[in-house]
Fold this protein.
Amino acid sequence: MKTAVIVFPGSNCDRDLAVAFEQATGQAPHMVWHQETSLPDGIDLIGVPGGFSYGDYLRSGAMAAQSPVMRAVSDAAADGRYVLGICNGFQVLTESGLLPGALMRNAGISFVCRDVKLTVANTQSAFTNLYDAGEEISIPVAHHDGNYFADIATLDRLEGEGRVAFRYAEEVNGSARNIAGILNEGGNVLGMMPHPERCSEDAHGRLDGKRIFDALAKSA
Amino acid sequence: MKARVTITLKNGVLDPQGKAIHHALEVLGFGGVNDVRAGKMIELDLADGTTDAEIEDMCRKLLANTVIENFRIERI
């Protein structure tokens, strides 16, 4: 499986994500700078990493969503390639229209940086099929703008179509219906605020995030 | 030619920043503040002849996120 990690000015989880991809697939990902207009041939999985792209100017993810490489990422997503957006990457995916809704300032104003409990709401997707139905896991979050918002019709549709991948099992940031991660209509794009790449090897102390990368590695 | 774009959160969208400002005003002893909503203002210096439709396009594509925000354009 060939993978790529997009790097924006201000990304800071790109190398952690690269390590997680390499451990799962046995192959180092291509690191793709935001000004590239195309992706290397044959990429199966694209990671949009966490961080503070463009210093969070205007809105978190808003500037990155307009960068040249995101057109190539959108084309790849339309072509059925897997796209995983984590934290700022999730914000970039909503701002670019690859996922519905928006991520707003946390309801409690504070930056939240701690382990949070999640329930896996969809265990059928290519990202989550190594988890058990309703399983509770713990993955760290580190964000200021993680408060998921969408209109009621969109929320109902996401839930009705099984596109909520993860929910917070505790109060974290005021997200609508405790949504922590969602899938696109085709099930090949996942955006999530928690950081699975921060709990995916023994030295991290917990492996709850690793199964996302392992699931993707076996699906292509 | 200049235009001013005012971006505000849509009605019904929770505004934690506005709430914090409201609380701070109360702490300072300002009574009678019913609600506070925070937004942003962007001033554009534009080439003569830029049309309203073009400015609106800028707002929809970048300046505002219409999932959560409204925008208002004024020429100044």
